Amino acid sequence: MMKFLSQYQASIRYRPMEDEVDYNESQIFDSGIDSIFLPSQKSADPLTWAAHCIDRFGDKPVYILIPGRRFDIFGTRHGRGTGWYDRFLSGVPTGWLRIGIVDVSQLSTSPLKHKSWDEPVDWIAVYDAPAWNIYKTNRRHN
């Protein structure tokens, strides 16, 4: 994964909450590239943030790290129920890579319920202490 991500020049990240995997302690995700941290406040407008990220990164190759309470191996994500990330992802370029971050205990091999507004992820990085496993979902780009 590290070699694969080396082609990306920018990243969009989040600051993990207490119940989310802290990917910052891993060297998989290069923190030395141009990065934006999304706000953790639900009051922040996700489409305004999408526009801000587009303005900042332009045509650079970008990957987005996305938290979730549950993911399935097919790319469906269940978050905190407010739809913030789904709205954000609907506003960014489709070519930007989406990587879900989850603990192995929160990964489902059975499909989760997928709603029409759910924005899927391309890859899932699964933390299974002390290692990371990476799954390609083939949900958006085959």
Could you walk me through the main structural features you see in this protein, from its secondary elements to its overall organization?
This protein is an alpha/beta fold and 142 residues long. The protein has one domain: Rossmann fold, CATH 3.40.50.10420. It has 3 helices and 9 strands; from the N terminus they run H-E-E-H-E-E-E-H-E-E-E-E. It has helices at 2-5, 46-57, 84-90, and strands at 10-13, 34-37, 62-67, 70-72, 77-78, 97-103, 107-108, 123-128, 131-136. The strands form 2 sheets. Strands 2-1-3-6-8-9 form a 6-stranded mixed β-sheet, with no helix packed on it. Helix 2 packs across helix 3 (84-90).
CATH architecture: 3-Layer(aba) Sandwich
Task: Give helix % range.
Answer: 10-25%
The CATH topology: Rossmann fold
Structural class: alpha/beta
Q: What would CATH call the class?
A: Alpha Beta
Largest sheet features: 6 strands, mixed
Annotation field: number of helices: 3
Mean of all residue-level pLDDT scores:
90
**Roughly how many Å apart are the termini?**
18 Å
Based on Cα principal axes, name the global outline: globular
SSE order, one letter for each helix or strand: HEEHEEEHEEEE
